[in-house]
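Contributing new complexes? Match this layout with heme C.
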Amino acid sequence: MKRKTLLKRTGPAIVILILAALSIFYLWSNAIINRAYPVPLANVYVPTDSASVKEGERLLHIEHCSDCHGARLTGQIFSDAEPLATLVAPNLTQIIPTYSNAEIERLLRDGVKKDGRSIFVMPSYMFRQLKEESILKIIAYLRTLQPLPNTPGLPRESTFHFSWRLKLIEGKIQSTASMINPNSPRLYIPKDTMQISFGRYLAMTACTACHGQNLKGEEGFSPDLIIASAYSEKDFFRLIRTGTALGDRKDIGMMSRVAKNNLSYLNDQEISSIYAYLKTKPTLKDEQH
Ligand code: HEC
Ligand code: HEC
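Output block (do not edit by hand):
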């Protein structure tokens, strides 16, 4: 048989096979993206007094919502996901009014959106370690936001490209809700006002989003926080308050940005406690995380 006729006969079959494989690929990845998480809503009582709202604003800064949702919370593309996906962290001043208090609480605690699907990238595994009253104060503050127009050019919704979908299927990227067991208790509520246990609580609720859930760092992205033991307390304060790292490095990238814009809202006692905890960390090898 001539090559040409072989191609004529098998060509359409190959095309059909490729199309079938592609449809399976998209259907499969869509199933992961659209998976529903049946996490029940809780009864929540959100405070409205001005002290709670003010503290909620401070906590919102520390939890660095603005690092992803934009300085005025009017939405931003999560650039770290490019070019795998265009993840749109939406305009909170517009979307929060469409959410009930219980739905915001579930989103922060379990990573489940109003429509029952999971969010991607947003670190609810960190927010869920916050004391319930702190989550409620954040909601109290969110409720005071006046609706503002979207950041110019903000796309309407996230799009997941081929390579993101491939990583989803391979299990290399996970949705936030799939990383969370909704029945797991809060692990780090400080037992007393002891500096170290308080410092651990703060590190577990302010640093894990980027330094990994056990603070051991994320390969190719962020260091093990054991590195803090190389800092004096004074230098550590300088890093958290101004973003200047040891050795007078004024701009070490993302850490400098998030320190200046967000972590600087931690008060003196909080920063000393985080430092005290991180200093002891090398000796806490058998610690359960
Ligand atoms: C690391 C980045 C990041 C941080 C920090 C972050 N978000 Fe998000 N958020 C996102 C992204 C990305 C999306 C859209 C995700 C998607 O399309 O799956 C999102 C979506 C949302 C949504 C919309 C959910 C929906 O129904 O579409 C709300 C509300 C929200 N975030 C609130 C918050 C609040 C409040 C905080 C701080 C306590 C916060 N986010 C912190 C990245 C982040
Ligand atoms: C938004 C992500 C993010 C958050 C939140 C974050 N970090 Fe970082 N941090 C980084 C990254 C990324 C680096 C590596 C340097 C860089 O690329 O900016 C880093 C580096 C560091 C370093 C090493 C600086 C050096 O000397 O090179 C220390 C110490 C540190 N972080 C402490 C903390 C502590 C403590 C917290 C919580 C209170 C925290 N970080 C929260 C992203 C973050």
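Reviewers usually confirm one structural detail per submission. For this one: The chain is about 45% helix and 5% strand.
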